[in-house]
Specification:
Blueprint lengths: L2 H19 L32 E6 L4 H4 L3 H9 L2 E2 L2 E2 L5 H10 L17 H8 L4 E5 L5 H4 L22 E3 L3 H5 L6 E5 L11 H16 L2 H4 L3 E6 L11 E4 L7 E2 L3 E2 H12 L14 H4 L8
Parallel strand pairs: 1-6, 1-7, 2-9, 3-10, 4-5, 4-6
Antiparallel strand pairs: 2-8, 7-8
Helix pairs in contact: 4-10
Length: about 300
């Protein structure tokens, strides 16, 4: 074999060796119960030294105008920031609760139980060392076996990982906690009557008039705290629901910006310095409604 042929053969062998030694691209997959695509979390600013407390109450099945028929609810809307173009993201209840706590409906369009991958807002809070509690009215036998008026479809935290986090407790703990060491994040799910699902607007409004003042009386809320009240879905095809951002010293009273449940999750996560989950990553946070300015004392 001539020197030229040997050189050509050697070059070819080196080229093949380089190609075979190149590592294949890594493909990461996340198990989901559907083909729905869930965007990766978006980085957000770290929480301040003394981050504020966040409270969330989710009511049921009332469109914007119907919710405002409640006397106390209408008073809150007149006094505190109100989103006038806020929409739920689907029907029935469960997809909306999942959107509020993970940034995705997971392709679910029913109210059945679906074991989802571990994660969601509760896992985020725990991993970040943020104390939280979710209060479920009527949850007398744990997340999975409690009778009416509790409904597991209104307890999204029980879906992630198929377990019941220790932070999910009966609503009977709420009053004492509000008078003591208030968790930094508080989620409240009323029972099927008090949330307006099975009972009248007046009954749901009365329940809010008894519950909201307990939150507003805490130093946790008074010191730059935030209470968000929303309805999981509307009772018409527009899915237009009322959402209130109740906090001290607001600078805006009304916003006509188009918001949805992903906007609410984005606002919570930004407030607590957490990465945004799922479609909250691309959602518009409710920054106008959350703007606050303490009055100057003379």
């Amino acid at each position: 074999m001539s020197g030229h042929v040997r050189a050509t053969a050697l070059a070819l062998l080196l080229l093949l060796a380089g190609a075979c030694g190149r590592p294949a691209a890594q493909v990461q997959t996340t198990p989901t119960p559907s083909s729905a695509t869930v965007p990766s979390p978006r980085p957000s600013p770290s929480p301040s030294t003394n981050p504020s407390h966040v409270f969330v109450i989710v009511m049921e099945n009332h469109s914007y105008g119907r919710a405002l028929q409640g006397r106390y609810t209408s008073q809150l809307a007149a006094q505190y920031p109100t989103a006038t173009d806020y929409h739920a993201v689907g029907f029935p209840s469960l997809p909306n609760y999942l959107a509020l706590t993970s940034g995705s409906t997971w392709g679910i369009n029913d109210d059945g139980y679906h074991r989802l991958p571990a994660g969601g807002l509760g896992a985020q809070l725990t991993a970040a060392g943020i104390e939280w509690r979710a209060y479920m009215e009527g949850m007398t036998r744990g997340c999975f076996n409690s009778p009416y008026p509790y409904a597991i479809r209104h307890n999204p935290f029980a879906y992630y990982g198929g377990s019941c986090p220790e932070q999910v407790v009966n609503f009977t703990h709420f009053a004492a906690d509000m008078q003591g060491d208030v968790p930094q994040f508080v989620w409240i799910t009323p029972g099927l009557c008090h949330d307006g699902h099975d009972c009248s607007t007046g009954v749901a409004d009365q329940w809010l008039s008894q519950t909201v003042p307990q939150i507003l009386a805490t130093s946790a809320w008074q010191n730059d705290g935030l209470l968000l009240i929303t309805w999981d879905e509307g009772d018409d095809s527009a899915n237009h629901v009322l959402t209130l951002a109740i906090h001290p010293y607001p600078t805006e009273r009304v916003s006509a910006v188009a918001y949805n449940h992903y906007s609410l999750l984005a606002s919570i996560e930004d407030r607590l310095g957490l990465p945004r989950l799922g479609l909250a990553a691309s959602a518009q946070p409710m920054t106008d409604l959350l703007a606050s300015e303490r009055p100057v004392l003379h």
